[in-house]
Write a structure and sequence with these properties.
By secondary structure, the protein is an alpha/beta fold. It is built from eight helices and seven strands, in the order H-H-E-E-E-H-H-E-H-E-H-H-H-E-E.
């Protein structure tokens, strides 16, 4: 029973990392110059049987930071009006302060050492989040400075697809293209996909790792 409890934890499953699913909608591709328009986050938990599940979802509409670029092509793609007063947008700093607080609590609760971003084409979201954290003058950022879990790469390996919508459909996850490119929807779907990929590996017998000499689970 002790072994199962140890194995069935985020701490042991991801080398003490606390995985947090993130998606951002932006006004371009340059993390230092282009505005962030939306941020969404889904935290994860592992149940007593070791299956990964979604936990908490949070979403913010973001005010473009002062002097930021807003590319018209990006707005045409994501259909966001950054200056619509009904968006209830907040500054990057307010959004990140809330996100970082929740993440730090999760790290402590789950006995993890550091958060790690899970995202589809994760380098994009990671770079924008790090740039926003630097602009907001956060002295400490709970996320790993360069490591990520990229569901595009994982889906290419497991499902033969790298596009989020196609990967979800191959995995048996319903995907509504009309809701796509909303940070909240894409984050939820990315979380669903990541949970399925992790849980599928467990169902196939890939977790926990087994010592072939003793035929017992390996715990580090």
């Amino acid at each position: 029973m002790f072994v199962n409890k140890e194995l069935n934890s985020l701490h042991n499953r991801f080398r003490s990392f606390y995985p947090v699913v993130i998606d951002l909608e932006t006004a371009g591709f340059n993390p230092k110059k282009d505005a962030i328009l939306e941020i969404a986050m889904v935290t994860l938990s592992m149940n007593t049987e070791g299956w990964l599940e979604k936990e908490q979802t949070i979403h913010f509409n973001i005010e473009p930071f002062k002097g930021s670029n807003i590319q018209s092509e990006a707005l045409a793609f994501n259909k966001i009006d950054p200056f619509n007063p009904l968006r209830g947008a907040v500054t990057e700093k307010i959004a990140l302060k809330t996100i970082f607080k929740i993440v730090r609590k999760g790290i402590k609760t789950k006995n993890c050492s550091r958060a790690i971003i899970v995202a589809h084409n994760a380098n994009f979201d990671h770079n924008f989040l790090m740039a926003a954290s630097k602009r907001a003058n956060f002295k400490k950022n709970p996320f790993h400075p360069f490591a990520t879990f990229d569901t595009a790469a994982l889906s290419g390996l497991v499902l033969g697809q790298t596009v989020l919508a196609k990967a979800c459909k191959i995995a048996g996850i319903t995907f509504d293209n009309n809701q796509a490119h909303s940070a909240e929807y894409d984050t939820i779907q990315t979380a669903n996909l990541f949970c399925e990929l992790v849980n599928r590996w467990k169902r196939l017998g890939g977790w926990p790792p087994i010592n072939t000499e003793t035929n017992t689970p390996i715990i580090k």
